[in-house]
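Input:
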Amino acid sequence: MELCHLGEFGLIGRIRLKAARRWSQILLGIGGDAAAFRPTAGTVLLATTDLLVEGIHFFREIPGFRLLGRKCLAVNVSDIAAMGGTPRLALVSLAVSSRERVEDIDALYQGLEEEAERHGVTIAGGDTSLSPGPLFVNVALLGEAGEGKWVQRSGAKLGDVIMVTGHLGASAAGLEAIRSARGQEEEIGAKQVRQWRRFKEMETSRLEAVERAIDRHFLPLPRVVEGRWLAVQGWAHAMIDLSDGLASDLAHLCRESGLGARIYEDKLPISPWARVVAEELGKDALALALAGGEDYELLFTTSRAGEVEQAFIREGLAEVTAIGEMVAEAEGISLVRKDRTLVPLKGGFDHFRVAKEQG
Amino acid sequence: MELCHLGEFGLIGRIRLKAARRWSQILLGIGGDAAAFRPTAGTVLLATTDLLVEGIHFFREIPGFRLLGRKCLAVNVSDIAAMGGTPRLALVSLAVSSRERVEDIDALYQGLEEEAERHGVTIAGGDTSLSPGPLFVNVALLGEAGEGKWVQRSGAKLGDVIMVTGHLGASAAGLEAIRSARGQEEEIGAKQVRQWRRFKEMETSRLEAVERAIDRHFLPLPRVVEGRWLAVQGWAHAMIDLSDGLASDLAHLCRESGLGARIYEDKLPISPWARVVAEELGKDALALALAGGEDYELLFTTSRAGEVEQAFIREGLAEVTAIGEMVAEAEGISLVRKDRTLVPLKGGFDHFRVAKEQG
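Output:
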């Protein structure tokens, strides 16, 4: 069924039916002029928004509408996680063509709801609009943190150890694998990757690594528990999530904190999946880990690195790795290579500049 | 200068410079992973979002980027007003082509900031993205209301008087004037209306009415003070803002409240500007007032209509008019014509259905 047969209020009705009120502080969800909720006394509210555009952030064929919905919410959850907050309430705006299939929009909302359920988030409202072509999804997400128990990008101190959760480069490697599989700059389904000759001839464990990297590209796993834990302990002085890539996001953190940074090549937790894909495609795994975006791991600075490591193991949280330290601003941001030479660290992703280079 | 010369972070930097922190509860504005603010104890938070799409809600040539920015914020402010809240914190997401002129985006933000200033709102963050073509603006707006001092659509009681602020139909009349001036379904500048022969030959006072209607179409004046006043007094049982048109928005209020409604043609405060435009174009002013959208006046129900009227005059608030009453759900929603006949009231605006009819 196409949307034009259902109508706007038909669509809103379908969405409303699916949205459960799962948070007792929600006083009014979908269907009012605005959503209403009662904040906990002594809390700080955190608000973030991320926009995903067809043809820029995703192609409708990959990874399919359900995973697309999950990703749209997950990238916002990651922003709340980066401040040590608990995600609570989402507003979802959609602009869709009237020729869009209702089943696809249902799948999109199913994904949004699945991810919301995973993080205890209530989808409490939004807006639907016609689009003259591309699909646009905007999620605004509100979260909470205890008064004084949240982290900014700007609090890093000279001498702080720089730490990162999880592994780096898998998401960018997954994207490279897809790009390589299609052999050209057109859309392709993830399943087609498996039919691609080079990957098909790989041994099973290596093929699995490629598939895991692709999965990671399509479905970020935001580090909410880890972010909140660090904020509540007060152990992270500054924190950011890795959306643009380590080099670029570290630069944001340094600029906000008025400091420089030094990170060590041999300490970087490069994803084993990224290494396999890089070997297979003749790419540089280090470059994927440094400049590839969308890992959605947490990068933070602390003066208690050893205690963080121990506590993360004790609490069953994500792996965490010390990768460098904060230095004076005048020293800039540099990478210490394995041969102990220093190279300035640049790079990252810029929407508008990239478009110009491609155009 | 085109955006591709400035880059994403250049754009964010420009936006950030312009955004003042004007609300003492804002702990962190533009530049973090999320915005952070401290809600007042005993408050309810209200959250709304509206998406405006080029080619659907606006054409870039009219009314120009500054007014477009004002409208994008104003329509959200109106949603907070409809619940009796005070707008506080906005997140603005933009998807723009890399060939967009930086000066136009600056003008858009100037308009957003002007409207924010007018309502005491802080633009505390957002997202910027590339668009493959059309311009998309999504605003998410947070507001506050005192605990128990906010209004839903669902609280209308049998026998309540239905009241409306201001006058109806001006915005739809303005749109008709523009459409008529251009003589076809293409974009045209508002200034060109003045050059149009029929309007040029009008006497000055009538031409001014046309221009005021056009202005009203491009710049809604959300009724924040009136909405808050009604909520604080507890005098509005149910309230909604008129975005889709009286017929459609009244139907929302009735459905939420489980009641019907009866409104009287001879009581409707049809805008004098709408009357002039309707006469000039051979349109029905009543239809513009009933089914034309975007008046952004408040429609509410109350058991104290007389006291509301007196108090609105005393407090220097907007004009307010009693237009009908709430009846049993089984009676449906009807219009009492001047000759006392009853006609069922239908209509309003549906994004996806309209698109189908046009396509």
